[in-house]
Amino acid sequence: MNGAHSLLTTLVGAGVDVCFANPGTSEMHFVAALDTVGGMRGVLTLFEGVATGAADGYARIAGTPAAVLLHLGPGLGNGLANLHNARRAHTPMVVVVGDHATYHKKYDAPLESDIDAVAGSVSGWVHRTLRPGDVAADTVAALEAARRGVVSTLILPADVSWSDGATSAEREATGTVGAERGDGFALDGILDDDAVRVAASALRSGERTVLLIGGDATHGPGLAAAVRIGEATGATVLCETFPARLERGAGVPAVERLAYFAEAAAEQLAGARHLVLAGAVSPVSFFAYPGKPSDLVPDGCTVHTLASHRGAAAALEHLADEVAPGSTATVAPAARPDLPTGELNAFAAATVIGALLPEGAIVVDESNTAGVGVAAATAGAPAHDVLTLTGGAIGYGIPAAVGAAIAAPDRPVVSLQADGSALYTLSALWTQARENLDVTTVIFNNGAYDILRIELQRVGAGSGAQPGPKARELLDLGSPAIDFVRIAEGLGVPGRRVRTAEELTAALADAFAEPGPHLIDAIVPSLLS
Amino acid sequence: MNGAHSLLTTLVGAGVDVCFANPGTSEMHFVAALDTVGGMRGVLTLFEGVATGAADGYARIAGTPAAVLLHLGPGLGNGLANLHNARRAHTPMVVVVGDHATYHKKYDAPLESDIDAVAGSVSGWVHRTLRPGDVAADTVAALEAARRGVVSTLILPADVSWSDGATSAEREATGTVGAERGDGFALDGILDDDAVRVAASALRSGERTVLLIGGDATHGPGLAAAVRIGEATGATVLCETFPARLERGAGVPAVERLAYFAEAAAEQLAGARHLVLAGAVSPVSFFAYPGKPSDLVPDGCTVHTLASHRGAAAALEHLADEVAPGSTATVAPAARPDLPTGELNAFAAATVIGALLPEGAIVVDESNTAGVGVAAATAGAPAHDVLTLTGGAIGYGIPAAVGAAIAAPDRPVVSLQADGSALYTLSALWTQARENLDVTTVIFNNGAYDILRIELQRVGAGSGAQPGPKARELLDLGSPAIDFVRIAEGLGVPGRRVRTAEELTAALADAFAEPGPHLIDAIVPSLLS
């Protein structure tokens, strides 16, 4: 068999059966092999950033990696921003980058570039396979690394893909890789008894303690353990600002997220003498601001690391059994807001979403500033998962919704999207239409990079004066106004524009009632207007 | 003054007065400085790949660099593919990548990544400025490098941008950088007398000689010299496959381009005993194909390098004076094809374009397979410039048209665009609308990645059999069909769909008659159907 067959056989044998792809000439044997090797679903995207974002959304929901197929260095570059997000979210992913044939590279053909250097900036594992006979073992190694929560990049030269001499690795994959599945804790999240003791002692100190959770502690057992700890000891439980996947809503133990704006985060942490990290990193300001601290840990606060992103839930359970034996976590009560009426704004839109969010929804949240009201409005909605912009690289939401919907075809996906970031990877809507995915996209269309209007003031640019006309123009999306309904329709997704709470209510109800993709262009005023 | 002011003052002082931007928080002081430092036009794009492609198109027409403003590593990643094209085209460009504040980097905030590594893959010059006082000198150095035909990347930490202590470099910029402008030959294209003698000897040998031109030899004087040489010696004159800017049409000395498909290129070069390179690199196959040579130089052919990409025109003029003294180059006669009628296909569409191409047009050609008929149909159209996909990274055309139109506001820009690559950087249409640019985009909409259907067969994937259904599906853009008219309208550009030659004729005539952006969605059958 050739290298392409070996790669596909190995992936499928290890349970990786979805590949988000934007192939080119050097990947044609991989594409052809999809028909000879059964069991792999190829999902076409119109841009590599959609493929990588979809694979991220997929893995956050499925818990297992998807494969991504990219074309040479420029294709990897196009997919880089969402690989950055995946890296920050510890998302398992196997990225296959097709390269020129080994013997062709020395000719420096037009598309030649340093793939390894670019891949290294986002990948926890990078390897270039040089012989067909190595493809199976290299693929297994890529999968092993991915399942530890990194982006694995396998660079596959075209001749390695098309040449014979490769083998099937079904056995190795089942043996080596399968053992790792679903048991992350045992691998790199070895329970640290000392860390549990230190954390317990901090929690019992009587001094203000904050427990900051992240990684695998932001769903099910991790949340329950964290809330038990908080309730038994009086510690404040916070979740990292942009969790990869946060379970919340009615019946789920509720945790507040650490605020994005450093000023607000500093308030949440004020007075803490102990900060216990369980799957989260020590909090820092997203950006630096003149004269303001980057490190958000208050003076006099000691940081204790209980666990890293894997094994955090298990460590919290141990800690809960230590400081809150036999207790049960309080869960959020079911509570929907009343449907608002009248003019639509960011808060009214959030309220409508909270009132109507379907059972078991996956909320992909890239609503940025305009989504300021969503968390409160959905706190008592039926239990749902929220995927957030973990790495901060915009253009994540619409692609991630593709992946989430493919990972969980029976769950409705609600994609909350700011207008500015929607425009990065809009073509993901087409893949939603092509695959008939049950995704409802709500564009919070305020006609501006509203976050940057706020940041322009926060960094003190313009010396406190109002920004000048050129600066304002560079943050304005309203001239000409962008018509997301037409764009969605052009990409095969039915769209509808709404300007009142009643219109949004009707549009959302219709979208939730009818399977398949829908887009709602919700016109809302800027938060600054 | 702060670093941002210093940077802007230095750029403007050196004649760089356009900046294509997609800023973020770390660039807010640069944005604010646009209002306090006069003379810089900030052009907002909705995606970084649009900014970098626009800067490439701008510099290819203006001959001087534009600046690009990008946000951190993910922003650079989004712009990488078109920076790759710029690198391959030797386009002068100054890329400013805003980074976290120097003291903030150690906190590994969510958007932290290895900007330097990624920038290195496309830049001929990369530097990180660490003190406000260095900004002016570093900017001058970036400009000097850019003007030698590379992408210069200046990484500017936010605190260097906002802190005082910087100086104006107007004098240095005028002195150091200005001297370089317009005189590339003297700098790195030192005339090599030996190379001229060797080339002359080859041309006089009586053996078949091919003169392959590129770099600065693809317009005006370079073309004239090359054609004089060909006419006097019988040498075949060819132009590199994807020239950065090729001047052609009525009144311009005509050269054929080296074919994209290796088989066709091999035919053009067959029997050559000498290959003289003037501004072009030795020809290689774009991709490797099983059992086919990568190196397109025929057996027994000696390669002589006359000049690299800069100084090629001057070297050719010396060579022409040596082997063809006193001669004048034949120019292409004015000759427009008759307007076709009936069903539209790729050739009929090309014929309509050839019949109507306006005087002085700039043709941005990313029509790929569907543009197969364009070169022949426009050979006798009024003189025009053609910008091509030099680096092979798709998603170039619509952004490059933005830059070309800004560089030459009095010239009509005709953007010929394949459907698949159009979908990479579609949002460039919005910038065309916002800036009211005179760009007519023709989408060759065949509903497929037609080039890949061809390549799938050429690489022998599927062992000569027809591709299977999964492979075909991954190359298909027809399900759902993409409606470029609606998408264009959603982005503020009027659109029109055409299905016959007559409809295309009417739509093109209207678009050329009315200034401002237009899009024509030309439905054509696949070349393989």
Using brief descriptors, characterize the structure shown:
seven-stranded mixed β-sheet; FAD (chains A, B); 22 helices; alpha/beta; Rossmann fold; 18 strands; 3 domains; globular; six-stranded parallel β-sheet; 529 residues; homodimer
CATH architecture level-2 label of the largest domain in chain A: 3-Layer(aba) Sandwich
Strand content of chain A: 15-25%
Helix content of chain A: 25-40%
User: What are the segments of chain A in which pLDDT stays under 50 over at least 5 consecutive residues?
Assistant: 171-187
Cα distance, first to last residue of chain A?
63 Å
CATH uppermost class of the largest domain in chain A: Alpha Beta
| Strand neighbour order, sheet with most strands of chain A | 9-14-13-15-16-18-17
- Give me the CATH fold name of the largest domain in chain A: Rossmann fold
Rough outline of chain A: globular
CATH superfamily of the largest domain in chain A: Thiamin diphosphate (ThDP)-binding fold, Pyr/PP domains
| Most residues in contact: chain pair | A-B, 102 and 101 residues
GO molecular function (chains A, B): acetolactate synthase activity; flavin adenine dinucleotide binding; magnesium ion binding; thiamine pyrophosphate binding
InterPro entries (chains A, B): THDP-binding, Thiamin_PyroP_enz_TPP-bd_dom, TPP_enz, TPP_enzyme_TPP-bd
Keywords (chains A, B): Amino-acid biosynthesis, Branched-chain amino acid biosynthesis, FAD, Flavoprotein, Thiamine pyrophosphate, Transferase
Protein name (chains A, B): acetolactate synthase
